[in-house]
Amino acid sequence: MVSSDSGKSRGMRLDAYLARAGLASRREARGLIRRGAVQVDGDVCRDSARRIDGERVVVEDQAVESPEAVRDFILHKPVGASCSRDDREAPLVFDLLSGTLSRRSLLIAGRLDRATSGLLILTTDGDLVHRLTHPGRKLPKRYRIEFEGELAASAVERCREGLLLTGEDRPTRPAELEIAAAGQATLILREGRNRQVRRMIRLLGGEVVSLHRDRIGALDLPADLEPGELRPLERDERALLVSDRSL
Ligand code: URA
After folding, report:
1. Pairing of strands 184-189, 12-13
2. 114 phi and psi angles, rounded to 5 deg
3. Which residue in 95, 113, 214, 220 is the catalytic one?
4. What is the pLDDT of residues 205-221, one digit of tens each?
5. Residue 30 DSSP SS3
6. Does the global pTM surpass 0.85?
7. Residue 129: left (phi > 0), alpha (psi -120 to 50), or beta?
8. Which residue, judged by its Cα, is nearest atom 7 of ligand 1?
9. 27 with 131: CB under 8 angstroms?
């Protein structure tokens, strides 16, 4: 196996190996390693920098699938599908996967609520999830909104300054609201709180009637991907996704 993190030595660091295999973020992987939860070829290994090059890695008695099997997918989430893993919440976005893809190994990088459509990334790579969702990275995500009601005249400015959402003690990060026409707006967020767009619009006097995410980082939802369609993420798309190039 060729190293993906330095290219100089053979194999891949153990913490990167676990993250790439979708087990955890790299930091969480280091925690598992420190705790003695990780074995390499039958021996507990507490060294995150240990290079893995074909050895058998086991975490808490579960063999870890080689990160070479890592896969990323792009999905046009349709309205109505839930990002939950709980079958009682069906229909689930995981129901859109073909039988060969294990839903257990796939993580959702930045969920959308059931009534929201748009760009969703599914991956086995815990590092990618971290890069797309960690608030410290401030990765922009763009939402197209249709709303009812009248937004406050100061709405754009208030979004830029941050809003204190009901039940929270920290204002939202600066967000860019653009009102395109009556009842239509776009909002660019750099964090992902629960139902954040809907709650922000409500606080500003409107009610979201339709919500669609069409961009993450510098990656647009491809125009040819129909609602409910999923395909592997291409390498250049992955690069755009994690780009923090300003929108
Ligand atoms: N904000 C929402 O209100 N819902 C989403 O799904 C994403 C952002």
Report:
1. unpaired
2. -55, -35
3. 113
4. 999 999 999 999 999 99
5. helix
6. no
7. alpha
8. 112
9. no
